[in-house]
Amino acid sequence: MQKNPNHILICSRNDEEALTILQIAEKLKINILESAQPHGAQLGKEPNLLVRLQEDFPDARTLAIVEIPGPKMENELTELGYTVNIIDHHRYGELDRMKQESSLEQFLAYFEITDEDLTSAGFDPLMISAVGAIDRGFLWELDTLGITDAQKKEARAYYRGLTLELGAKMRLHQEGIAKEAWDRKTEQDGMLIIESADGETSIRDSLSYLIADTYGKPRTAVIKQGNRRIYVQESDFSQKLLDAFGGFTFGRDRCWGILKEDGSIPSIDEVIAVIRDN
Asked: Contact at 8 Å (CB) between 191 and 272?
């Protein structure tokens, strides 16, 4: 690891990849400004960001910001003399930050963290690689690592351990809601249609595991939760959906989603119409 100690990592502890990034950073004593924002974090909404930077890291002027977009605030930080480096792999409406590498992989490269560094800090480099692979393309990406079935099983167990560490009670609650929705699933035009009345609790990850366990290969799935969330996973039409409805893409542009607090998400029929028309 070769980076100047005056670099600051800005990251929220809101999913398995982010948790892994923070765990590594903590062990390697990288300066951290941790955000308490959940999924959908925005830099402009980070409380007292400038005050915290100036008070906690008065001599640091280089930032590495993980999946907390905010071009306006990024420009303000640049004008104040900070060098801003973006670590991300998503599209947010017209803001394109898609990359082939996961944020974890970008983080390791940015801070020049080697497998030897990871091992010395108490991590298994293979499991860290697995987390990065799962985040960039879900379980199917483990095949790109050239690992055995036993190692894939170990990787899934490791990832689930991270999930539970983020909040065991909440995660078990999510899995219960996901299983109820899964048991009511239907199919339309070769796609799985999965609906839940619960728009508050994200169940996409839990459903993804059920799809993998059931089919053993990617399946296009439309996942609608109440009037707040709708996702399409494993589709060739993520960009078309983004153009039509806004939202964001992820999973190497194979997945699309939108979250609207005002309930103005498109219907399943409207989403399927975009897919059909293309």
From this structure: yes
H or E segment at 26? helix 16-27
Alpha-carbon gap, residue 253 to 92, rounded angstroms: 11
- Which residue's structure tokens are 């002027």? 61
Domains of the chain: 7-122 (3.40.50), 178-276 (3.10.310)
For the chain, give the number of residues.
278
Name the pairing type of β-strands 248-250 and 91-92. Answer: antiparallel
State pLDDT tens for residues 113-169.
999 999 999 999 999 999 999 998 888 899 999 999 899 989 988 998 998 898 877
Question: Is the distance from CB of 1 to CB of 100 less than 8 angstroms?
Answer: no
Listed ranges 4-8, 22-26, 89-93; the one with the highest mean pLDDT: 22-26
Task: With beta carbons less than 8 A apart as the criterion, state whether 68 and 37 touch.
Answer: yes
Sign (positive/negative) of CA torsion 119, 107, 136, 37? positive
Angstrom CA distances, 133 to 78, 100, 106, 216, 267, stand at: 32, 10, 12, 17, 31
Asked if residue 9 lies in contact with residue 3, where contact means CB atoms within 8 angstroms, the answer is no
Give the C-alpha separation, 98 to 242, whole Å.
Answer: 13
**β-strand 83-87 against 248-250: which pairing, if any?**
unpaired
Contact call for residues 221 and 271 (beta carbons, < 8 A): no
**Contact of 115 with 126, CB cutoff 8 Å:** no
CB atoms within 10 A of CB 81: 7
Q: How far is CA 278 from CA 188, 236, 241, 250, 258, in A?
A: 16, 9, 10, 20, 20
